[in-house]
Structure formats: C-alpha cells, structure tokens
Write a structure and sequence with these properties.
Chain lengths: 484, 474
C-alpha cells in the first residue's frame, strides 16, 4: 500500500483546493438569497476537513511520484472529486447517492448528461455549482492538476503524460510543465471570460451567462433550463455558443502557441484543425440539406439555424440542444452521434477518440492498401508532414479497439438490463464520448432519470473511462500494473 | 593561378583533375592520406594531410599567397570555417565553398564577408538535380544549358530520321522557323565536331547543339526531330543525396517512384517526401523493377553512389521497357563507353559541377561556363567590357573578331535602357534583356554578354584573352 500513502498527501491538497470552488455557489446564494448557503458552506467545510486530515496524516511520506502512482492518482482525483462534489446535491436536492454521484461525475467529466428535471425551478446556486464542476472538469481540473502538482514538487512530467489527451502529447510547449499549465489555464480563463461577456451582450442574464460560459468552454453542456438553449430562442445566443463551442473544440495547445506568438498563423500548423473545421462545416451543410429534403422545417433559414447549432453542439461533445433532434428523421441524429465520437481535436475538452486518432486510423487503412499494391513500398504514416512512429500507431489501434469494445460492452449491458436498442446504444455512446444527451429515452428532451440504478452506475463508470482516455483507467485494472 | 582545394573526395579530385591541366598551381588538403596519395600518383599537384578547418593546415597548404580557395569537403561546417579563416587570416581573394544544407542556403546573409565570408557557394547535388529536371522537362534533349539567368539556352539534341530538318542545309533553318531565331552552334558527327556552315547538311544521328532564347527552344526542337510525349512517370533508382533532392524537386510535376536499398534510408526518405512512392529494394532487382511497372516509365534515372549499379540497373530498365534511361556515372572511361549506346544519357557529376567552378577560375569577366562533351568542349558566357580602342571585341562585327578555329559566338544578350551610371543595381533578371542570335554582321556593344561555343578546350585561353580589356586602358 506504499502507493496509497505516497499519493494521499497530494489527494489531500487537491481536496483542500477543490473546497475553494464552493465559494462560487456560496457567493451566488448570498447574492441572490436563495437559501442554500448553509448547504454549500457545510460541504465546503467537510471537503476541506477531509482533505486536511488526509494531508496531515500522510504528509511525512510525501515523495516524488512514480509514473504508476501518477496514473492511480488521476483516476482517484476524478472518483474522489465526484464523491465530494455530490455532497451538496445529496444534502440540498435530496437525490439518492446513485443519482447524485452520476450527476456530479457527469459534471466533472464535462459530459453533460443529467437526470435532474425542473432545472428552471432549482436554486440558482445549484445550477452554478453544476456548471462550475463542468468547467473545472473539462479542462480546469486537467490544467489545475498539471499546474498545481508540479508546484507541490510532484513529478509533473509523468502525470501530464497520462493527462493531456491525444497521441501527440509529447510535443512540448514550454520547457517547464508549470509554465505550460499556467499558459493553458490563462487561455481557458480568457476564453471563458470572453464567452461570458458575449452571452451577456447577446441577451442572457449575468447568472445565465456565467453558467453557460462555464459549460460552453468545458464542452460540458449543462444548462440552467430544462429546454437548454432553446429557452432563449435567440439567434444571437446560438451564434455565440457556436463560435465558442468551436473554439473550445480546438486544441488548447494551438491556442496557446498562437497567443504566445501573437499570430493567427499558428493555427495553420495544426494538422487536426482543418479536418475539424471541414467536418463541422460539411456536417452542418449535409444535415441542412437532409432536413430540407425531408421538409422537417418550413423554410431553409430555420433548418440551417437548427442544423448548425445542434450539429456543432453534438460534434464538439457539448450537448446543448435547441430542438429535440432525436425526433429528426433517424439518419440525422445518428450522424450527429457518430460525429461526436471523433470530431473534437485532441487537447480540447471534447471527448471521443479525437480527430487526430481518426486521422491516424484513416491513414493506417490507406497505408495497408498501398502496401497491397506495392509490396516493397515504404509508407510512413504522416500527420502534418511528420512521420508518426509505428509505436504511436499501435497505441492508437489499441486505443480504438478498447474504445470500440467498451462501446459494445456498455451497449450490451444497457440492453440486457432492459433498454431498447437505440436508447442503449446512444446512452453508451453519449457517456463514453462525454456528449451528454443520447437519443430516444435519454434524448435531449428527456433525462437519464428513467434509468435503473444499475444502468446509472454503468453510465457513470463509462463517463469516467471516456474522460480519462480509457487506457489510463484500464491499465490500473491489469495485474502487471501491480506487480512488484 | 594558385588554388587551394580542401577535400579530395569525388568533387575535389575531379576539380583538381580539370584545373591541373590549365597551368594552375594546385594544393589539395584532405584528412585521409590514402586519398591524397592516389591523387598525387596521377596528377602534378601538392598535397597536405590534415583537418582543412585548422589554421596551421591552411598555412602549410600555402593559403598565405593563394588566389583562390575551393572548400569542397563533405562537411558544410568545415567548408564554412575554412572560408572564414581564409578571409581573416590569409586574405584569400576568392573563396568558394560547397554548401549542401538547404538550411544554410536559405540564409544568404551568413555568407557575407563579415560573417562566413563565402564568396560563392556551390552544391554539386543541386547542379545535377537541376540538370536532370531540365532533361525531364525537355525529354527530346540530351542536355539543356542555361545562360544569362535562363534567358538563353544551349540545347543538345540527336537528330533522328523523320525530323523535318534532317537532310537539309542549315541555311534552310531560318525558312522553317521564321519567328523563332536560332543558330546551330556545333554539330557532332560520330563524336567528332563538324563546324556548322550555311551549307552543312544535318544527318540522322548527329548531335546538334543549337542556341535560342529559352522560350523558343520547344519550337526549334520540333523542327529537328519529332517530339516525344511529355514525361509523366519517373522512377528514380537510389535515394541518396541526389535522388532525394531530385524526387523532392519533381514530385509535384510527375508521378515519381524512388528505390532505396537501405531500409532506414528508405524510411527517412518516405518521411521526407510527400507525393513520392518510396520502395525499399535493390535497383538491380529485376523482379522489383518489373512489379513496379518499369515498362510504363517515361524516364528511369539511376543515381546511386555506385557506377556499376547505375549502369546495370539502367540497362535492365531499358530492356524491361523504360522509354528513356539516365545514369549517373562518375568514371570518365565508363561515360565514354556508354554514351549513345543503350543508355540514353550518361551524366558525369564532375563535368556538371566543374562548369560552376570554372566560371570563377577563368580570367576575364566570365559569367557562366558549361563544360561539354566530357570536358573536350566548353560553352562560355563572356562579358565584353571597354570600348573599341581597349577591347578586341567591342564595336566589331562578329566576322571581324579573330576567334580561334572551332570557336564561334552563338548569341548575344544585350541589356536595354541601361541606367547610365545612375547607381541602379537592379538584378540582371529584368525584362530589358534582348537575346540576339549572332549573325556575321552583328556588332558587339560594351557590356554585351556573348555566348561562345568552343569546340576545342585548348583554345579557351585565346578566347578569354580576346575578351580581356587591354591593361593600358583600364
């Protein structure tokens, strides 16, 4: 159990730091007088006390973490974080533990699946709390962990290896981890602030703008309204959301480099970006044409408006909705679900296999075909003009298989426990890829509340697996990982 | 001229071989004594063993009173440091370095006198690569040489049966091509030169050198022989320095396949090239060539490091149906054996590189030198300076100029609206250039660039002398 003692002081410090995040809902509840101050203050105290106790008890054993301990730590941060985060939901909303844990895990993994309804009637501080958890979860916690841990003297490099999503994680932005993390965090914060102002200018109230900017930048998708963004019925707000969802779907390392070089040219060097944008644009156009052909909406303009917003929302794994797209002719919602599995760029808060892995997989197929035609050909797999080492290709293939297997197993588990095919598949897909709403019984107009406890837990675990890029969690479950 | 050559590799030794015959004092420096020994056995020159970038070694090589430094070692860095030393310590007036890395070449400021002090940089691989690229562009030609920044080209073609001009007298050329002016500079019949006169008849099999403005060469070529189909598919044998450069230069225009023997080399090549199909294998592997459709190739270029491999694989490619084969052959004797045989074009790297160097070694104002026919002939671009009094060429009609036998002025490039002493130093690539095809009554003006074809290399000094301004009038 040496590993547990080694990571415990770090966990304690993270718990203490996370307790500070309660300040936002506490301030909200004081400002708006919605009477939930006590709930959040209590949760904060509990959170801080627990963290402090762990830290005090184990701080003597603090040492440089090893790679394996780093991986365990990351999984535990999410599992434990969701545990603490669900305290206010348990205390204030009277949810069962299963439901509260699902809700807070969905928030911390920036998934956006919810089983709460009547959001409009909820105390605003709860909505703020949910959105803030997403914001922290999406990239905030990633960057925070990356930024804070090295400052604690914990080996930063190993942890970031498990943390920053995508196969090209070796490209270093700055010589020091801490600096990189600070830069990423600053960009994230600046974009969130810009989004907040834009939402406010587009007509939201300050509190709605805050909640939605949190959940937009994290590509989470929680809203303070049951109707999601349809509540506002405003083209301006939808445009703001589309722009910021797209920005948040781009690799933050690219944002960072562009900011540091003060030049938009850096975006041209990002090999994923053109594919991401083209896939988004083509999908919007395709869905619009399809819906027009099916006469779903009376005019082209309305069709384009709904198609653009919901396509971008699902493709970037945000999960806002302005219309119940599950009711569209079945091709369109299936296409959206499919987009959600790969469209987002690596290094963003989006889920799924990420665009860069899709590019690697596609090129690998191309390469095998070339090899059939020319047996002597040497065909390296290239991304952005750079040859990708075979080791990375194997890792991507393994990742893809693990991803596919998880999707199938979860779908089967959900179907075996009584869900219909579309619901089971879409719930598995929406959880694994951190999209949020699925189709049919878990579609954008309903919630996950109808699931049994077993199904809820399956989805909870799936969200965690998807968020931590599967292999990070799966490796902990292998016997060789624990071999002395 | 006292010349110090650094590096006795392929480039260094062939340069030495060419220069030693021209009454130059040569000193060759290399780190490997055995290479120097081999060189000294053959040629009359001095050798010094040691690191070419060390001051003491340069001193020993006589850098103190050398007129020119040729730094052609394998290493760009050694060459650059040697030039810098030559400038700071020994004050050598002309410093030429072989620079291969495109990274260095893309920053010309590092070669300025206050930095690395490289007066001219040459890259043999690039010269050969440009040469082959030209041949692909004009598949009918044996050689395409450019003068006056590409304004004028000297093209060698083999006249074939069925070409409209074959069997005609040269004076008819003008009737056939009223709008495109050209002049036949030389004709080689069974490897011996025939001086072109108005009544010379072109025979099938002749190697015809003609000169024309670059935009006209296609039209002229069409008169001399039927045109081939344009090149679409190219296969390159050997992915070394030359193969890699060549593939990168042409991969966007043609569909290119490249064969490299070394597995890691092939992988690096494939990572480097975006549109080329890289094959790992032996260039003399018949199975490989066959399975990669060698028969469908328009051009096969064998450019490995090994002469024998190049010869064998291009012979094989030709037999398997490649339309045209080009082989890189270093050894002079092999080139003589194979040219105009089954191998369509044999390229001697040394011959290609030497021209670039010769331009700097020549007396008089010599802009470009191309060495032709394995060094037997030369085409020079000479600048006429001075006035009718001080110069033997300016102000004279071409027929009046006392050219040695076998030498002829083929064309003149004249710059119009010369900004008279306004200090305007625009690069010479403007539109104000006129290409004049030489006639017997054309008069040379000061600052004209004359393209001179010299059939016999021994008469080159005579030609140079003609273009030198008389000392008394400078």
């Amino acid at each position: 159990m040496a590993w547990l003692i080694a990571i415990s002081p770090v966990l304690g410090i993270i718990a203490m730091a996370m307790s500070l995040s309660h300040l936002v809902p506490i301030l909200t509840s004081i400002a708006l007088g919605d009477g939930t101050t006590a709930v959040f203050a209590g949760s904060m105290a509990l959170n801080f006390a627990a963290g402090c106790a762990v830290w005090l008890a184990t701080r003597r054993y603090r040492r440089e973490l090893q790679l394996r301990e780093g991986m365990v730590l990351i999984s535990l941060v999410w599992i434990g974080g969701a545990l603490f985060a669900c305290v206010p939901l348990l205390a204030g909303l009277g949810l069962s533990f299963t439901d509260a844990y699902f809700e807070s895990m969905s928030a911390l993994t920036a998934t956006g699946a919810t089983l709460l309804s009547g959001l409009d009637g909820l105390a605003p501080s709860f909505n703020v709390w949910r959105a803030e958890l997403q914001w922290l979860g999406g990239m905030g916690v990633i960057v925070l962990v990356v930024a804070v841990l090295p400052m604690l003297g914990v080996g930063g490099r190993q942890i970031s290896k498990a943390e920053i999503p995508g196969p090209m994680k070796d490209e270093q932005l700055t010589p020091r981890m801490t600096q990189t993390a600070k830069g990423l965090w600053m960009i994230y914060f600046a974009l969130t602030f810009a989004c907040l102002i834009a939402y406010r200018l587009a007509g939201m109230t300050w509190i709605d703008a805050l909640i939605h900017s949190f959940s937009t930048l994290s590509l989470g998708g929680f809203s303070s309204h049951d109707a999601s963004l349809a509540f506002f019925d405003s083209v301006a707000i939808e445009l703001v959301a589309i722009v910021f969802m797209t920005l948040a779907g781009i690799n933050f390392a690219t944002h960072f480099q562009a900011w540091r070089a003060r030049s938009v040219d850096r975006y041209r060097d990002d090999s994923e970006l053109p594919y991401f944008l083209v896939v988004l644009a083509a999908s919007v156009a395709g869905v619009t044409v399809f819906l027009s052909a099916q006469d779903v909406y009376p005019d082209l303009w309305t069709t384009l408006r709904y198609a653009a917003f919901n396509t971008v929302s699902v493709a970037t794994n945000t999960g806002y909705a302005t219309v119940d797209y599950a009711k569209w002719p079945v091709f369109a919602p299936l296409w959206l679900m499919f987009l959600g599995t790969f469209a987002a760029c690596s290094g963003s808060a989006g889920g799924g296999i990420k665009m860069i892995r899709a590019m690697v997989l596609f090129q690998q197929v191309h390469r095998e075909l070339a090899r059939l035609a020319h047996p002597a050909a040497v065909t390296p797999l290239k991304i952005g003009g750079q040859a990708v080492p075979n080791q990375v290709v194997f890792a991507v293939l393994a990742f893809f298989f693990a991803w596919l297997a998880t999707l199938v197993i979860v779908t089967l588990l959900l179907a075996a426990s009584g869900l219909d095919a579309i619901t089971a598949f879409s719930a598995a897909c929406a959880s694994l890829n951190n999209i949020g709403p699925g189709l049919h019984e878990v579609g954008p107009s309903t919630t996950f509340a109808g699931l049994t406890d077993f199904q809820t837990w399956v989805c909870t675990v799936t969200m965690l697996l998807g968020r931590l890029e599967l292999l990070t969690v799966l490796v902990i479950l292998t016997p060789s990982f624990w071999r002395k | 001229m006292r010349i110090v050559i650094l590096g006795a590799g392929q480039v260094g030794s062939s340069v030495a071989e060419n220069l030693v015959s021209e009454a130059n004092d040569l000193t060759v420096v290399d780190i490997d004594p055995s290479r120097l020994k081999r060189l000294q056995d053959r040629l009359d020159l001095r050798t010094v063993t040691g690191n070419a970038a060390h001051p003491a070694v340069l001193e020993q090589a006589g850098a103190r009173d050398a007129d020119m430094l040729l730094a052609v070692t394998q290493s760009d860095e050694t060459n650059m440091v040697a030039c810098k030393l030559a400038a700071t310590m020994f004050n050598i007036p002309t410093k030429i370095a072989r620079i291969r890395s495109a990274d260095y070449l893309s920053h010309p400021e590092i070669f300025s006198p206050e930095n690395f002090a490289v007066d001219h940089s040459i890259c043999p691989e690039q010269v050969i690569c440009d040469y082959i690229a030209k041949l692909l562009e004009f598949p009918e030609s044996l050689q395409v040489l450019e003068f006056a920044d590409g304004k004028v080209s000297l093209v060698a073609v083999r006249a074939f049966h069925g070409g409209p001009l074959v069997g005609q007298e040269l004076q008819n050329l003008r009737r056939h091509l009223p709008q495109a002016e050209t002049r036949v500079a030389a004709i080689y019949r069974q490897d011996s030169p025939v001086m072109p006169e108005g009544n010379t008849v072109i025979e099938a099999g002749d190697e015809v050198f003609f000169i024309a403005a670059t935009e006209n060469i296609r039209g002229v070529m069409r008169e001399l022989r039927r045109m081939d189909k344009p090149v679409k598919r190219v296969m390159i044998g050997g992915g070394g320095n030359i193969g890699r450069r060549l593939a990168r230069a042409i991969e966007k225009r043609y569909s290119v396949k490249i064969i490299e023997y070394n597995k890691t080399g092939a992988e690096r090549l494939a990572a480097d090239l975006d549109h080329t199909l890289v094959l790992a294998g032996d260039v003399t592997d018949e199975e490989l060539l066959r399975s990669e459709n060698i028969g469908e190739m328009d051009v096969y270029c064998a450019v490995t490091n090994d002469d024998e491999n190049n010869i064998m694989s291009s012979l094989l490619a030709k037999r398997l149906g490649a339309r045209k084969v080009i082989a890189l052959i270093n050894r002079g004797s092999y080139v003589n054996l194979l040219q105009s045989g089954q191998i369509d074009i044999a390229i001697s790297p040394a011959q290609q590189t030497i021209g670039t160097l010769l331009a700097h070694v020549r007396r008089g104002d010599c802009a470009v030198v191309h060495s032709l026919r394995r060094g037997a002939a030369e085409a020079l671009e000479l600048v006429a300076h001075g006035d009718p009094k001080s110069s033997k060429v300016v102000g004279r009609r071409i027929e009046e100029i006392d050219l040695p036998k076998g030498a002829s002025i083929a064309a003149i490039v004249r710059r119009h609206d010369r900004p008279a002493a306004s200090g305007d130093e625009r690069p010479a690539a403007g539109n104000d250039h006129e290409v004049l095809i030489a006639h017997h009554d054309t008069i040379l003006e000061p600052e004209d660039h004359a393209i001179v074809f010299v059939v016999n290399k021994r008469t080159v000094p005579h030609v140079e002398k003609l273009f030198q301004v008389d000392i008394g009038f400078v």
